[in-house]
Amino acid sequence: MGEQPIFSTRAHVFQIDPNTKKNWVPTSKHAVTVSYFYDSTRNVYRIISLDGSRAIINSTITPNMTFTKTSQKFGQWADSRANTVYGLGFSSEHHLSKFAEKFQEFKEAARLAKEKSQEKMELKSTPSQESAGGDIQSPLTPESINGTDDERVMPEVTQNSEPRAESTQNTLPFTHSSTISKHWEAELATLKGNNAKLTAALLESTANVKQWKQQLAAYQEEAERLHKRVTELECVSSQANAVHTHKTELNQTIQELESTLKKKEEEVEIRNKDLEGQLSDLEQRLEKSQNEQEAFHNNLKTLLEILDGKIFELTELRDNLAKLIECG
Fold first, then answer.
1. Cβ(230)–Cβ(252) under 8 Å?
2. How many alpha carbons fall within 13 Å on the CB side of residue 292?
3. Which residue in 177, 181, 192, 202 sits closest to 285, CA to CA?
4. Mapping DSSP to helix (H, G, I), strand (E, B) and coil, where does residue 20 land?
5. 220 with 254: CB under 8 angstroms?
6. Could you tell me which of 257, 256, 255, 267 has the C-alpha nearest to residue 209?
7. Which range has the worst mean pLDDT, 93-107, 121-135, 201-215, 293-307?
8. Which of 6, 31, 41, 246 has the most CB atoms less than 10 A away?
């Protein structure tokens, strides 16, 4: 049968920056089709996406892969064979969840296929047994072969011009709400970026504290060595006064070093507290922004339900008036 698509969706495709291993690099200028394929000949599952004639995803699913949801509309997985990390940005949380469910389903199917393949190899190695024939079928439903829910549900509107005019009027609040939603998403992305920067700064400060503690331990060891050296000089040298002066200078140097390190530790502690306070404040703002966005979406959903009800009432009223005119 060859390789056949078994599930498709649309998403923005990204790959991890090979240099920094931190930043995402977009590999498509717009949303493209991302499909799961099943190769019945080799009994493997692959994720494939094309941007024109260029393949931007060609990833074979293995049992040790993991698809991780990093936000409500973004997910990622690592492909060790391709030596990269793929990221997908979806238009809704529903599409992300659907893709993740299929990933887990096909990952489990790949694991079972691998186990059955190993069993077949063991059976072939035994002369008294015959290998089982036939292809392993994919554990899929006819629904998944037909594509995404959006591709199956969207009907074509072929009515007269009057419903089209109503549809144009109804899209005005949606356009306004979409602009506000984009504003909140941009604000949320900014807060997340600031949160990441503060977290990185806090980690860097913690690393500096550890380094300074190591330096302090090294200075303390040097101080002990110097103390021992001074004691040896006092025992060996007959010039007690010179040794005492040298010892005093060394003690002063040690005290100055300890004082300097103590000040640095205090400065670092103050800076850590300040960064922790900023991070806490940013997390509160982020949570508040998310709550406000959720409340906005709930209000918008309520408004849409009311609007749908009004449209239904107007449609029913129009039908009743038409019936009255026909009866008259």
1. no
2. 13
3. 192
4. coil
5. no
6. 267
7. 121-135
8. 6
pLDDT tens, 174-230?
Answer: 344 455 556 566 667 776 766 676 676 667 666 666 766 777 777 777 877 877 887
Both tokens of 159, joined, read: 């009515």
Per residue in 121-175, pLDDT tens? 777 665 544 444 443 333 333 333 333 333 333 333 333 333 333 333 333 333 4
Give the C-alpha separation, 218 to 235, whole Å. Answer: 26
- When pLDDT is averaged across residues 45-51 and rounded to a whole number, the result is 94
DSSP 38: E
Strand, coil or helix: 13: strand
3-class SS at 69? strand
b vs e for 29-43, b when ≥16 Cβ sit within 10 Å of the residue's Cβ? eeebbbbbbbeeeeb
Nearest-angstrom CA–CA distance, 307 and 314: 11
Q: How far apart are the first and last CA of the chain?
A: 65
Q: Tokens for 293?
A: 């966005």
Smallest CA-to-CA distance from 11 within 176, 187, 156, 148 is with 148
Residues 6+ apart with CB under 8 A from 296: 180, 181, 184
Task: Give bridge partners of residue 50 from the DSSP assignment.
Answer: 55
